[in-house]
Amino acid sequence: MSPSSGAPAPATGDGRPGAHVTEAAAATAEDRAAAAERAAEARAAADRAAADQAAAERATAERRAAEREAADRAAAERTAAEKAARDEETARQAAADAAAAQQAAEARAAAERAAAEKAAAERAAEEKAAEEKAAQERAARTAAAAALVAPPPPARPAAPVAPQQPAAVKPGTPQAPRKPRPTPKADEAPPAPGDLICGSCGAGNAPTRKFCRRCGTSLADAPVAQRRSWWSRLWRPDPKAARAAGYRPPRRRRFPTRPVVAIVVIGAIVAAVLAFRPEIERARISVLDRIQGNTAVNPTQIAASSELPERPARQIRDGATNLPWSPAAPGDGVGQFVDMAFAQPFRLTRVLVIPGSSDVEKDYLAGSSPRVLTLTATTSAGTQQTVELPLADRVGLQSVATAIDDVVAVRLTISSTYRATPETHVAIAEVEFRGRS
Q1: What per-residue confidence (pLDDT) applies to 194?
Q2: 3-state DSSP helix/strand/coil % of the chain, to nearest 5
Q3: Which of 227, 402, 405, 406 has the fewest C-beta atoms under 10 angstroms from its C-beta?
Q4: Containing H/E element for 303?
Q5: 171 pLDDT above the threshold of 70
Q6: If pLDDT is split at 50, 70 and 90, which confidence band does 376 have?
Q7: H helix intervals, 150-203
């Protein structure tokens, strides 16, 4: 019967009714209290774990912010240093230009003074020569007047000269050779190179003369005869000296020298151009690469085979030299690569690489850097070209020349490394591509 029916409750072992019910209720209450305490402890542990995780995330965010701030500060300091260096170089160049201009002005002034002194000396010499000539003319006129006034002295009779007769010559005796008959004098030779050409009569004069040897004109402003170049003398030879009177040249057929020489020279030039056409084309392309192939080309997509969380692949082109890319696994990193795609095809002329984790020597030597990078370029036609990029074990920017046309994608693969250990990660701080469209 139920307790509500008025039946008596069963008795316990000590004779008290309902004692076992009270003990069961007490045990249940203790279990519930223990369970509540365990739940509270679990919630407290979860809260502590969440707080620790939040603190770790805040610390990571603060560390990354500090790294970015340090990178920005280093970049600003480098920019300021480069600007100061450029300003200093500009000032130094301006000072050098001013000094050169002053030296040139002094040289021009000295040359003008020397020319003025030379002109004054020549004028003085001309005036002296004119005075001497006038004095001679006056002396000649005085002598002529005296001769007209005074009668000439009587001439002494000349002593009779006995006629010379040829001496007798014994037959067979050798006789002295007779003097050759004088030949008519040939026309005057043209001025030689270096001679002063008279402006009045065109005669050539030695460089030391002041007046023309033929007409007596001053040579102060006379031009100097220049030596003709070999090709002009070959094409138009100097006129030959005039022959003596009575010379009769032998009749002979003249060889067409000028047309033959012109044809031979033109043929040689054409043959040289045809023979060295590949070298000429390569030289032309090399000149174009040097003049126009130094434009920076930035990739639009960057992906890596693996990366550390704190050194992702995008840092390889972020402009900061202390934020590198590193593969996820430590060691030599051989076979790990970075893929970069470009928006437009271009001619890749040069690759600039900053190996290691930083451009600071202490940080660079603390890790490992690539020794050889294998560059695999994909062209717009779908073909691939492979170029080895050897790098030195030193801090700073290194440049490697390439010559690949129509590049649309590039893969850089680590082939070998410096100072690789099982604990260190190989790193590449920056990569830049130069080329022209």
Answers
A1: 86
A2: 45, 20, 35
A3: 227
A4: strand 301-304
A5: no
A6: very high
A7: none
CB 340 within 8 A of CB 349: no
Cβ neighbours around 420 below 10 Å, total: 21
**Is 192 in a helix, a strand, or coil?**
coil
Torsions phi, psi of 120, nearest 5? -65, -40
With a pLDDT cut of 90, the percent of the chain lying above it is: 35
- Type and span of the H or E element at 205: strand 204-205
Rounded Cα–Cα distance for residues 318 and 308 (Å): 16
Name the amino acid, one letter, at 163. P
Of residues 158 and 146, more confidently modeled: 146
> What's the DSSP call for residue 224?
B
Cα distances (angstroms) measured from residue 326 to each of 129, 240, 262, 383, 424: 93, 83, 67, 28, 10
- 340 close to 410: Cβ distance less than 8 angstroms: yes
- C-alpha span between 324 and 318 (Å, rounded): 9
Report the chain's mean pLDDT, rounded to a whole number. 83
Q: Which two tokens stand for residue 67?
A: 């790294």
- Give residue-wise pLDDT tens across range 79-107: 999 998 899 888 888 888 888 888 888 98
Question: 1-20: per-residue pLDDT in tens?
Answer: 444 444 444 444 444 555 56
Phi and psi of 273, rounded to 5°? Answer: -65, -45
The partner residues of 11 in beta bridges, in order of sequence, read 17
Amino acid letter at 311?
R
How many angstroms separate the CA atoms of 115 and 121, rounded? 10
For residues 329 and 304, is the Cβ–Cβ distance under 8 A? no
Question: What's CA 209's distance to the chain center, in Å?
Answer: 50
Look at residues 224, 204, 222 and name the one whose alpha carbon lies nearest to residue 214. 204
- Which pLDDT band holds residue 419 (cuts at 50, 70, 90)? very high
Closest CA to 326 of 369, 294, 293, 290: 369
Amino acid in the structure at residue 57? E
